[in-house]
Amino acid sequence: MSAVREAQIRIPLIDGHKTYHDISEDICKPIESKASRGWYICITIAGIIALWGIGCIFYLIGTGIGTWGLNKTVNWAWDITNFVWWVGIGHAGTLISAVLLLFRQRWRMAVNRSAEAMTIFAVIMAALFPVMHMGRIWCAYWVLPLPNQFGSLWVNFNSPLLWDVFAISTYFTVSLVFWYIGLIPDFGTIRDRMTKPLAKKVYSILSFGWTGNAKAWNRFEIVSLVLAGLSTPLVFSVHSIVSTDFATSIVPGWHTTIFPPYFVSGAVFSGFAMVLTLLLIMRKVMKLENYVTVKHVEYMNIVIIVTGSIVGVAYLTELFVSWYSGVEYESYAFINRFSGDYAWSYWSMMTCNVISPQLFWVKKWRRSLTFTFVMSIIVNIGMWFERFVIIVTSLHRDYVPSSWTWFHPTFVDIGIFVGTIGIFFTLFLLFARYFPVLALNELKSILKTSGESYKEEQWKAEGGLYRKTS
Amino acid sequence: MANKVYYAMYDDDHKCLEGAKTLVGEGVHVSDAFSPFPIHGIDPVIGVQHTRLGICAFLYGITGTMTAIFGIKYFMISDWPMIVGGKPNGTMLENLPAFIPPIFEFTVFCAAHGMALTYLLRNKTLPGMPARNPDPRTTDDKFVLEIRTAENHGMTEDKIQSLLKSTGIVELDVREIEA
Question: Cβ separation of B128 and A205 shorter than 8 Å?
Fold first, then answer.
């Protein structure tokens, strides 16, 4: 029997009367057996798209950023839109693994591993854009405060763009370390199960010689806790800093103090949507229905309602304040957003981000997997439009009407954006094939409090009726 | 006489914890425990000290904060003062609000990576290190207690074995090691 008892109202998080060994079996089996045909088809498609994207990136670097559709009025467009979109998606993983760890939410254990992997891949995609935007990529090290022959002329620590360098690199490396430290014991499990010599050798190297003795676990728990404590403010700071790229400028429509909290909740909103997109496919293909239950999906949909509502309130506040400020440039920027040439993008954003998450108030819908899947894609489209609206609609109507213009993406713009989606999915598919997709050793530690058989036993012992509602 | 190591295997974390309590209560020194996930409450029983990694993280963090503050002061105030958009930069204090984000990020960077490296080094978990768990099943669903005769001089081998058997073990592995 378990030492920790949970209230009866909490339904099991691990269904199907699992034992410790079953958990190892269920999660290691896909790694040990041959990949399905579906996996090969998916990775081929993703790989082709990725190669197209990489081709466009090489063409861009060889030719220069003139190949993008930027012009002298709209001098920032898809590159920064994609950057912010990917960074936003990369916010769910660390939120799930860090914030939910501090709040002791047990349901996070079924989703944290894949959400963290998604975070890392999304942040890599995000980081590509500012690096590409430098044009002369071989000078990328100039963003670091290194002694040089220009003076030394140092980087400008007043600039949000430099804060971004620090924020994104810290966020990426800390997320990577957090993810890998959690993976080490699970690689140990795979290493000890593997029979093929080459695979055993590879997983032996990946597991760093993990032993699982009492002291190691003692350290492991503290490291996880402290990293979670460090990552929690990091999650909030990173997207706040990204938002100051806009908020500290004087462009009407960007110059607003509401940006940091609005960007952070938007980031969590889109990140959870992407986690759901990936997880709903993965749970089906890899037969993880017992671990990622409908209850897990429902919990994530509740987070989507909350963050989606914050985003909705932020949109409306922005609109109100632009009028209330009495600044004509500011109010024009917003009137132009919802009624100007780019009104279609504004209303797509409003529909996808404000109206659609409210549908999750209906219990039946937020527990429906098909509905959730469709909604998760809609939310991600909406969040891409949010960044597009903020960036392009604020710029395309300059102070001088003679410089008013449109933004037309070129094939390089489109190729790089679609290409990053391809690279992202290629990396994620490789992760799903060779890495333990669920934190199996963490799942074992909650089996006795949240496993179905143990729950049943506990309910019977306490005289309650066993009920299974998931 | 060669020293012996007993590896007592349990199939349940609770039984393993209770077993460790019984053994320690009888005066047996348990050297270590191997498990697929942390057994909560076993550390004080077998005498594993609480880790000081949290303190390390704080020290690494404070090092990062100080490095960032002094670095930025040198770059932005002393060596090459930059006037950007007319923002005040005469003293560090005037300009500090703009420097908080990179100082914070660098603090987190140093604390997290310093602690992670210390963790890997202290655990002797590095790429290419051999696995040292006594049985491959300890990373799956088995829990093993390690008892060394060298650390239990007051006990006969029969006494240790009979005590172990009374705690509900599923397997007992005895290995001889060079003294």
Answer: yes
pTM of this structure: 0.90
Following DSSP, what letter does each residue of A94-120 receive, concatenated? HIIIIIHHHTT-GGGGGTHHHHHHHHH
Cα–Cα distances in angstroms (integers) from residue A86 to residues A120, A239, A249, A417, B154, in the given order: 10, 11, 22, 10, 64
Give the residue among B111, B164, B170 at the shortest CA–CA distance from B4. B164
What mean pLDDT is predicted for residues A53-61? 93
Identity of the highest mean pLDDT range in A42-56, A228-242, B66-80: A42-56
Distance CA B38, CA A444 (A): 10
Whether residue A320 is predicted with pLDDT greater than 80 in this model: the reply is yes
Chain A positions touching B14 (Cβ under 8 A) are 1-3
DSSP B85-118: TT---SSHHHHHHHHHHHHHHHHHHHHHHHHHHH
Helix (H) or strand (E) holding A282: helix A259-285
What is the DSSP-derived secondary structure letter of residue B52?
A: -
**Has residue A2 got a pLDDT over 50?**
no
Which of the listed ranges A110-114, A314-318, B16-20, B92-96 does the model predict with the highest average pLDDT?
A314-318
- Cis check: omega of the bond before A152, within 30 degrees of 0: yes
**Facing residue for A217 by CB, picked from B35, B53, B75:** B35
Q: Which tokens is A140 given?
A: 């990328």
Which of A164, A226, A248, A445 would you mutate first to test chain B, the one with the most B CBs within 10 A?
A226
Torsion of CA B46, B47, B53, B55, to 10 degrees: 150
pLDDT at A465: 60
Q: Could you tell me which residue, A106 or A168, shows the higher pLDDT?
A: A168
A-B CB pairs within 8 A amount to 210
Distance, in angstroms, between B155 CA and closest chain A CA?
24
Surface-to-core class of residue A110, CB atoms within 10 Å of its CB (0-12 exposed, 13-18 middle, 19+ buried): buried
- Per-residue pLDDT of A207-255, as tens digits, reads 898 988 888 899 999 999 999 999 889 989 999 999 999 998 888 888 8
**CB A239 within 8 Å of CB A260:** yes
- State the smallest CA–CA distance between residue A158 and chain B in angstroms: 5
Q: Which chain B positions have a beta carbon within 8 Å of A216's beta carbon? A: 123, 125
Q: Are the beta carbons of B53 and A444 separated by less than 8 Å?
A: no
CB contact under 8 A, B80 and A205: no
Average confidence (pLDDT) over A321-340 = 90
